[in-house]
Recover the amino acids of this structure.
């Protein structure tokens, strides 16, 4: 069971650290964090790791006990009688150390795996917030540019309107001056006709 857990942790860790595209990684982590099936599996794994922790404590105690027995057999009065006994002690010591390392690495990798999962999940959340902020900033920039274009158009229309009003005032002034000149010309023509004794019903514009 411990070896199967260790192999599963190594495979899971390899999947987590793969350079996957952002969209695929986001969907994967959303599935792992929101799926009820994954939640049940995680709960069962927590119980399994409790048993692995118990096995780790037992393996450490057995390793120290076997090591003490080997040292006692080597330095004690009884000593090691033959090669078979020495091989038996070495095998027991090896198995105790193997169980210690196996359960210890399994627990250690579970902590690393959990921390890595939450770090990557925070990274994905940060990237999503950054994408939203970047999109909002781009929309705001476009709105600002559009408002600037509208302001320029309004200023251009005001300028054209002012020019049109100025042209209209100039035309009115010229028209008034033309009327005044025409009236003065008519007055001078009538006065000339009276002085010369000529009578004319026509008025020259």
């Amino acid at each position: 069971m411990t070896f199967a857990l260790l192999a599963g942790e190594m495979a899971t860790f390899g999947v987590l650290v793969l350079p996957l595209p952002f969209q695929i990684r986001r969907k994967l982590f959303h599935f792992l964090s929101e799926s009820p099936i994954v939640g049940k599996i995680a709960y069962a794994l927590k119980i399994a790791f409790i048993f692995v922790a118990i096995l780790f404590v037992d393996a450490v105690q057995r390793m120290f006990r076997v090591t003490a027995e080997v040292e006692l057999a080597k330095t004690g009065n009884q000593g090691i009688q033959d090669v078979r006994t020495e091989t038996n002690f070495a095998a027991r010591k090896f198995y105790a150390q193997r169980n210690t390392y196996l359960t210890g690495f399994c627990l250690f990798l579970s902590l690393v795996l959990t921390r890595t999962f939450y770090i990557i999940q925070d990274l994905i959340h940060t990237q999503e917030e950054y994408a939203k902020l970047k999109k909002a900033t781009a929309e705001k920039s476009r709105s600002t540019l559009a408002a600037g274009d509208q302001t320029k158009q309004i200023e251009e229309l005001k300028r054209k309107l002012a020019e049109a009003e100025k042209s209209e005032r100039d035309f009115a002034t010229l028209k008034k001056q033309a009327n005044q000149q025409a009236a003065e010309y008519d007055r001078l023509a009538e006065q000339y006709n009276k002085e010369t004794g000529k009578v004319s019903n026509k008025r020259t514009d």
Notes: Residues 199-205 have pLDDT under 50 and may be disordered. The helical segments are 2-16, 22-34, 36-75, 83-196.
